[in-house]
Design goal:
The structure holds 2 protein chains of 2 kinds. Chain A is mainly alpha-helical. Chain A has 13 helices and 2 strands, in the order ααββααααααααααα. Chain A has 2 domains: 69 residues, no CATH class; 250 residues, MetI-like fold. The chains are: A mainly alpha, B mainly alpha.
């Protein structure tokens, strides 16, 4: 806040302050100039090409791309009436929502169990963050080694339950999407866990202690004191995880390539298939454009939420150290 | 029940729940490591072999060093070139990360002290990260092929630099915000230029934060798959893409080899992640949540 005040000092007419404002402005453009130039060099042509291909029918077999035929909004009409794309959006939303909620509930429960010091706390912490430190593509291949029908996961479940447990995780169209969702939850519960743990250990202590002194049960303290105080952190954990899940590609692709059938065809997988397996570059571009618009709407909503919650977080961290 | 007994029961339940989750978390990692030490007859065995017997280094020797003499069954030898991919991965992720942190720290200083980007602009910067790469990777690869950056290390460095910039700016800003301004003001009064203040006063003060930011972004760029897969086809192959080449092998899956490569990719990452475990939350939340 004070920095902002300093910038606007230039509005007054003291020559010293005016020269200071000029110096700051020069400093600003020395930093931002190269960056804006880089954006202009990389992102603008990319956006232009995407638009170009969305309006021109071209595939790799048709010669030079700059001679492709102009087809107007034909490709967009095709995309918007494409049932497969509609289902891909539905699958992406289902996958992201389910894995976000799964990660959050598990991560929050673990964080709640661990937010007060106990013997072995840092041991469990280190173990619990391991999944998000594995490379997604490694998760996919390890999952394949674990989940094939006579593989160790079915074997262990059979032994523990005493029944013949033979789920075809990787080839049954009905559970394939659930299998990727479970993998995503395994992979990213640590994300929700560390955020909720940090949240639980930095909310102010006094309201909780006050409620306890007044005789509130642990459950009521949780619902009526801790949960409201944790709201910004909860939103953050949900929003950021949801956005990352919408972009998930490596695991879904490496394990299923959209199959069996179209059971795991999420938005990224469908765009990938259209562009690099069917070589319909133009349709892929129109699909990307539609997906980008969808994501921009979602991201703008997310950013609105994050801006509001960040203010609450900044106020919390500005409180003196001893009170939390 | 007395209060003490109830407390002991609660503590036991906690350990039980945490241990179950620890087992679920650790088992796949254990399976990857154990498979990497299994001889080829045990990769698919029924019932599954849980402890390699006898453990062997043949998968590592074959995958990483191209030693050919170890297969007992029909599984063919790996002819991959992981050392080249390893070199590419190190060059690409280190230089992209270094650029992002260097630029990011200076921008973050400007934002923290002089508001060179408004709050709204800072949040718009996040869009670079939040829009999934799949929506721009096809036009990007065509553009890259037009300007000769397709399949080049520079092309990957450039795009990784741009997509990790939001993390770099936000994370370093959260560290710079914690440095009291009085120190810089003292430097300014003593006549230091703004750039000297940045490089000789502010950045050294957040040294450990910069290291944490660097390692955090290194984790992200090291494990990135989609962009590397599309842009680095044959020359600029990174380790995750090298690993995915096993997918196309028609002679049955070579799980042991795959696992030996996977362990080599993952273990350095885990070590780095454990080293900066206290800062991970700051990284993943763009500096908004701290510990």
């Amino acid at each position: 806040m004070t920095a902002h005040a300093e910038v606007s000092v230039g509005l007054h007419f003291s020559p010293r302050e005016a020269s200071r404002a000029r110096a700051i402005s020069r400093f600003r453009w020395t930093i931002l100039g190269p960056l804006i130039a880089l954006f202009a060099l990389v992102l603008l042509p990319v956006l232009f090409l995407q638009l170009y291909f969305s309006f021109h029918q071209w595939s790799v077999y048709l010669g030079s791309w700059w001679e492709a035929d102009y087809v107007g909004v034909e490709l967009f009409r095709e995309v918007l009436t494409d049932d497969r794309f509609g289902w891909a959006i539905v699958r992406s939303l289902m996958f992201s929502a389910a894995s976000t909620v799964g990660c959050f509930l598990l991560g929050f429960a673990l964080a709640y169990l661990m937010h007060k010091p106990f013997a072995g706390q840092s041991f469990f912490y280190v173990i619990f963050i391991l999944p998000m430190l594995t490379v997604p593509i490694v998760v996919a291949y390890t999952a394949e080694m674990l989940l094939y029908q006579s593989g160790p996961v079915n074997d262990i479940i059979s032994r523990l339950s005493g029944t013949q447990f033979k789920v075809a995780w990787l080839t049954d169209a009905d559970i394939a999407l659930a299998a990727v969702t479970l993998l995503e939850i395994w992979n990213w519960t640590p994300f929700s866990f560390i955020i909720m743990l940090a949240g639980l250990s930095s909310i102010p202590r006094e309201p909780i202690e006050a409620a306890q002194i007044l005789g509130a049960s642990r459950w009521r303290v949780f619902i009526e004191v801790q949960l409201p105080l944790l709201r910004p952190v909860i939103f953050l954990a949900l929003v950021l995880r949801f956005l990352e899940a919408m972009a998930e590609f490596p695991k879904t692709w490496a394990l299923f390539q959209g199959g069996p059938g179209t059971a795991t065809e999420t938005i990224p997988v469908y765009i990938f298939l259209t562009t690099w397996q069917y070589f319909q570059v133009s349709k892929g571009a129109a699909l990307s454009y539609a997906a980008m618009m969808l994501m921009i709407v979602i991201v703008l909503l997310a950013i609105r939420l994050l801006r509001r919650e960040k203010r609450a977080l900044d106020i919390m961290y500005a409180a003196p150290e001893g009170t939390r | 029940m007395t209060k003490a007994r109830r407390r002991r029961l609660a503590s036991l339940t906690r350990y039980a729940v945490l241990s179950v989750w620890a087992a679920i978390v650790f088992f796949p990692i254990y399976w990857m490591i154990s498979t990497s030490f299994k001889p080829d007859t045990q990769w698919f065995a029924w019932p599954p072999v849980y402890i390699p017997d006898p453990p062997t280094f043949s998968n590592y020797m074959n995958v990483w060093f191209g030693v050919q003499e170890y297969a007992e069954t029909q599984y063919i030898q790996s002819l991959q070139k992981p050392l080249i991919a390893l070199r590419n991965s190190i060059i690409i992720s280190c230089s992209a990360t270094f650029l992002a942190v260097a630029f990011g720290a200076v921008i973050a200083y400007g934002v923290s002290r002089y508001r060179i980007l408004s709050e709204a602009r800072m949040f718009q910067l996040l869009m670079l990260r939040m829009i999934p790469p799949i929506v721009f990777v096809a036009p990007l690869s065509l553009y890259y092929s037009a300007i000769g950056l397709l399949d080049s290390i520079i092309g990957l460095v450039l795009i990784y630099f741009l997509t990790s910039l939001p993390y770099a700016v936000w994370m370093t800003k959260s560290f710079i915000d914690e440095v009291p301004r009085e120190i810089e003001q003292a430097a300014e009064i003593l006549g230091a230029s703004r750039w000297r203040t940045i490089f000789e006063v502010v950045l050294p003060l957040i040294r450990s934060g910069l290291v944490a930011t660097f390692l955090f972004i290194l984790i992200l760029t090291w494990s990135e798959y989609l962009l590397a897969f599309i842009i680095g086809k044959t020359e600029a192959v990174t380790l995750p893409v090298e690993l995915s080449k096993y997918q196309g092998t028609s002679e049955g899956r070579v799980y042991g080899r795959q696992a030996a490569l996977a362990v080599g990719i993952t273990v350095p990452l885990m070590i780095v992640g454990i080293l900066i475990r206290k800062h991970l939350v700051r990284g993943f939340s763009f500096g908004m949540v701290r510990r």
